[in-house]
Structures
1.
Amino acid sequence: MRRSRILGTGSYLPERVITNHDLEKLVDTNDEWISSRTGIRERRQVAPDQACSDLALAAALKAIADAGIEASDIGMVVIGTVSGDMPFPSTAVLVARDLGLKCCAFDLSAACSGFMHAMAMADNAIRVGMCDYALVIGAEALTTIVNWQDRGTCILFGDGAGAAILGAAPVGSEQGIGPIHLHSDGSLAEALCIPAGGSRTELTPELLEQKKNKVHMTGNVIFKHATRNLASVAQEALESAGWTADDVDHVIAHQANLRILDACLKRCGMSSEKLFVNLDRYGNTSAASLPIALDEARKSGRLKAGDKLLFLALGGGIVWSGATCTL
Ligand code: ACO
């Protein structure tokens, strides 16, 4: 069966910067606490007239140009997001429309693992011949769904989008994505969620007042599971690819917290020099963070053809994922 590979990438970050010092004016926090606990120094925020699909489209156009294909070549658009333009239709159909496409297009809800889950769907579609080129996007306008009075969450999140074009790898080549490993543990669903506004709990004026339509998180619970689960899925991905930790050239991971990633790499016996980090500039952009990191690492010249990558992500659900990829 054919494999898929990454043909091009793109990313887009909105212009407005919110620094840790800006947040000191909003909630009881300080730059020292935020940067030492998370590694984050600043994050981006959408303009009032920007929504998730605008960020996604900008990243997609760059990825299409980078891959050297025409938009009309694309047979699938899949977006990982938890902050789409509307509850429905999907943000993917809006992006497909703006690209002049009428192909298969859908969103996928896997929080910070959204891009990895989307990539798995696109990879499988290419493997079985459902399409030849897929546009995979992680895009978030998270600053529109955070509670700006909650210092435990509002300091973490930022907005942005990253995209990749997947196409078939040459038969017999080393290049390609996967295997991809996806996991979930719904017993921790309430540790990171938006409690109201869905079919379980209708939004009332009281719940709106209590910001129950915004992100709620028990950070230390997520932290504990993140370190352990990311390390175990990393081992799983390496084993199924027949790689050892030493084979990995670069780790491209969801950028939530530098302490989580450092601890995970330590458990895997990998040097932190293999880790690409941009969370200091963008914070946690959920599904967008891994493809933005991938794009920045590629465009910086850090990655070269033939390099072996390890992708890792974990987010609300909780869900987590790991995959190998040879460029
Ligand atoms: N500034 C100052 N103090 C703060 C802040 C803040 N912004 N936020 C919390 N504190 C305080 C708490 O109130 C607490 O005070 P107390 O000891 O007096 O009660 C103290 O700091 C410690 O709080 P913890 O929550 O235990 O701090 P922790 O070291 O766990 O760091 C953090 C919090 C950064 C949120 C961490 O738990 C984390 O990164 N968790 C994982 C986040 C994550 O990976 N999420 C998944 C992806 S997101 C997605 O899927 C959308």
2.
Amino acid sequence: MINLQDIWQDTLSELLKEPSINAVAYSIWIEKLSPVCIKDDVLILLAPSLNSAETVRKSFSSTINKCLSKVKPTLKNTEIITREELSFFIEAGDFVHNQELVVSSSSKKRSASPFISRYTFDNFVVGESNKLAFYAAKSVAEKPGSSDGCLNLNPLFIYGGVGLGKTHLLHSIGNYISKHFPSLKIVYMPTESLANEYFAALEKTSSDKNAYRNFIDKYQNVDVLMFDDVQFLKKKIGLQDAIFHIFNTLYQSGKQIILSSDRPPKEIETIEDRLCSRFEGGLLADIGMPNLDMRIAVIRKKMMLEKVAVSDDVVYFLAETIDTNIRELEGALLKVILYAQLINKPHPDVETAKEALRVSAPVKKEDIDSSDIINATCTYYRISKADLLSKKKTKDISDARMVAIYLVCDLLSIPLVNIGQIFGGRDHTTIIHARDKIMNQLKENKKLELEINDIRSMLNV
Ligand code: ADP
Ligand code: MG
């Protein structure tokens, strides 16, 4: 039996030791990859964006492959995919999510279920903040499509902030129904992937007049339909229309619909009134922030599932420190465990846990952002971030500042006014001036060009 998560964590430990991967590159490109599944001798890794996938393929694939085969000699290659490609795995029934994926080494057969096996009701910690959503989800799974007494659970609309368990609940419903009602046809789709599929169908209609009809049919001929993260419907009026019709057909024939979103239907911008009222027609169940007791329970559950343990002190420290969401809490626990392994300290104490959270990179948005660029520039020119963002006009500081401004303008598409704010509240004309000055100097200043290239390679862009 091979545990995908273990393989990837071990590969990350190897990658940390690689001299060719500096700390900036590690935190921007490597740490954000997540393992999806294994296909023959290839490990499939998910990158957070297309740009990130391309960079990893171009600059890190061979090092990752080398480290991977150190950890698992039978695995020789990696394939870096994006979220869009992930949806093809889902459609092909070929998708197996990371974490718990267990590949039977003898048959090499992958599970055909599109649901993440560890996302079950049993693995879900129930507390004040999520009990309505939990019991509603369970009830829908037990009796899909039928109203529960006087309570109308169709559609079930679960909403709440990121990392609070919405996808976990949807997959739990999927796992439960697949097991107890194997004849029912269930479709689960993240709304972003649904939108891609919809636009692809529209594009195809000129050459294939059935493309749109096939798209609608795929979702109309099901017993249970789940769309995850429907806030992505905003501004997609055509898709909203299509969903409205799918919705009516399913509803009229008593099929179950389950939706999730990061906000209640009314707060999804530009959602059509008629669709909004369909979304609100059943039960709206919110998931709130977990309290301290629940955070402790989540860590304990996670330790049990991952077969790892830390002391009560560390559990308490993590539960108190990470009060944002459950995904970050789980991530923090894994960081502590990984770090403890790295420094050969199998029983981490609170000091080690603090250290682990300090040394590991903060959770970042997709790809690089302005602070990555500023940090890399400061590291390169050995000046402090405070100085770079200050009003100081000393030559080395102001030169470094101009380089950072130039790189932010060049690499990110942020309005100039906002760049001004990022650089200590400067006017946008100052930003234009700095950017153009560097652009002009680059035409003849070879040394500056090399410096900027060095910073780019620290950022791997
Ligand atoms: P969302 O879809 O709301 O952004 P997820 O369902 O992806 O959040 O949850 C993020 C992580 O937190 C997952 O690994 C999930 O298993 C875990 N998680 C969330 N809520 C709970 C809970 N109540 N009990 C156990 N694990 C949870
Ligand atoms: Mg989710």
